[in-house]
Write a structure and sequence with these properties.
Blueprint (H helix, E strand, L loop, with lengths): L6 E3 L1 H13 L4 E3 L6 E5 L3 H11 L8 E3 L3 H4 L7 H10 L4 E6 L16 E5 L4 H10 L3 E2 L14 H8 L5 E3 L11 E4 L6 E4 L5 H8 L10 H9 L14 E2 L4 E2 L3 E6 L4 E2 L2 E6 L4 H15 L6 E4 L7 H13 L3
Parallel strand pairs: 1-8, 2-8, 4-6, 5-9, 11-16, 12-14, 13-15, 13-16
Antiparallel strand pairs: 2-3, 3-7, 4-7, 5-6, 9-10
Helix pairs in contact: 1-5, 2-9, 9-10
The structure holds threonylcarbamoyladenylate (TXA) and magnesium ion.
Length: 324
């Protein structure tokens, strides 16, 4: 997508065009009541991989999936009683809930960074909801800025960072809230507040009772999750040890293959026969899960070039290989 022309869309026709582009697998930024999101069809792993490429993110953070209403959201995750209460009170609005994925969840594993949980939200902005309705699929969207830059609250901010790197921006005017949504983990042993945001802690406590700070808000949580994925009970890490930069795999090793390497192995999963990093990113978590099976001693991973999305792939693989 780099080097292309970014269309500026608005109004009902803009919504229809934005939906068409998303269903084609293209990236479209759109306004919500909090900040502009960089959207992709969450069911399309390759489209989700393009989000990380466009943002220049060195690692795969779990992304929030956006839905037009609670019914659509709860088709992909298991809603608890508290989740239903909060959905009635605060959706559409700036609250994100982390809940267990359903077995039937349509969302690509990459969108949730391989976790067994998924962050879901129903945004308050009418244009955003019209877009989500028209797409008819969950839309994964982090804030629409380059990695390390501030979150955009207007279409012009989005273009400052991403012009030429995304297919379009749907301009619905400035974002009224201006800070990201509150992230609440309701998945296990919670509720835990993971990020302060548009819905206050006081409002949450009034609705469902005590809310813990399982993890300190914002960046601290992000850093902790990224540095030690095993710290989050729900975080998927393979049970088998992971061996990196393997050119050959033993018969009792499962091979995670990129292009030609490793050769051999008692089981094999090809990330991308043509050595395409976007394709490899979209299949990474599927591959790790597929190979993490009984009867194997380790997962042997072929070398992945440390450039572009390859850096994010290697970051995740290094964490999977870290001693536990
Ligand atoms: O207001 C918002 O939430 C904006 C707009 C576009 O909706 N989106 C946004 O997305 O801020 P992002 O990717 O920048 O932030 C997602 C946050 C991160 O802190 C991430 O760690 C957390 O949600 N998150 C996502 N999925 C999670 C999961 N399964 N478990 C724990 N935390 C999760
Ligand atoms: Mg962000």
């Amino acid at each position: 997508m780099t080097g292309g022309v970014t269309q500026r869309l608005a109004g009902p026709e803009g919504v229809a065009e934005a939906a068409r582009l998303l269903l084609e697998g293209a990236l479209v930024a759109f306004g919500t009541e909090t900040v502009y999101g960089l959207g992709a069809d969450a069911t399309n792993g390759a489209a989700v991989a393009r989000i990380f490429a466009a943002k220049g993110r060195p690692h795969f953070n779990p992304l929030i999936c956006h839905y037009p209403d609670a019914g659509a959201a709860f088709a992909d995750v298991v809603a608890t009683d508290s989740a239903r209460v909060l959905a009635d009170l605060f959706w559409p609005g700036p609250l994100t809930m982390v809940l267990p994925r359903r077995v039937t969840c349509r969302v690509a594993l990459l969108a949730g960074a391989g976790l067994d949980t998924l962050a879901v939200r129903v945004p308050g902005d009418p244009a955003a909801r019209a877009l989500l309705q028209a797409v008819g699929r969950p839309v994964a969207a982090p804030s629409a800025n380059r990695s390390g830059q501030v979150s955009p609250t207007s279409a012009a901010h989005v273009l400052d960072g991403l012009d030429g790197r995304i297919a379009a921006v749907l301009d619905s005017g400035p974002c009224p809230v201006g800070v990201e949504s509150t992230v609440l983990d309701l998945s296990a042993g919670g509720p835990f507040l993971l990020r302060h945001g548009g819905v206050t802690q006081e409002a949450l406590v009034a609705a469902i009772g005590p809310v813990g700070h399982g993890i300190t808000p914002g960046q601290a949580e992000q850093t902790r999750t990224l540095r030690s994925p095993g710290l989050l009970v729900s975080h998927y890490a393979p049970r088998l040890p992971v061996r990196l930069d393997a050119r050959e795999a033993a018969p009792d090793e499962a091979a995670l293959v990129f292009g030609a390497w490793p050769e051999g192995g008692g089981a094999r999963f090809q990330l991308s026969a043509g050595s395409d990093l976007t394709e490899a990113a979209s299949l990474l978590f599927e591959g790790l899960r597929h190979l993490d099976r009984d009867g194997m001693r380790a997962i042997a991973v072929g070398p992945v070039p440390d450039q572009g999305l390859g850096r994010a792939i290697n970051d995740r693989l290094q964490r999977a290989a870290a001693p536990r």
